[in-house]
Design brief:
It is a single chain. It is built from 3 helices and no strands.
Length: about 80
């Protein structure tokens, strides 16, 4: 990927740090918040738009953390 070995090692170290647990707690809270958002709009178009935006936020955050983990395991 775009990170060199020392940068991947830094991510691995970060993930192993107890302070990373705070970030994971925030991650879980954001997922719960976004899952609870209503997906109902004024019409079908708005409903579809809100649903896709909600799913995009959730999937984007999950993908980011999954990729962090992948980078840490590539060291």
């Amino acid at each position: 990927m775009i990170l060199n070995k020392s940068e991947k090692q830094a991510i691995k170290s970060l993930i192993g740090d107890k302070r990373f647990d705070v970030l994971l707690k925030f991650y879980e809270a954001m997922l719960e918040k976004w899952k609870a958002e209503t997906g109902i709009g004024f019409n079908e178009f708005d409903t579809l738009k809100l649903t896709f935006m909600k799913e995009g936020k959730i999937n984007g955050l999950k993908n980011f953390f999954d990729e962090l983990e992948n980078q840490a395991h590539e060291v």
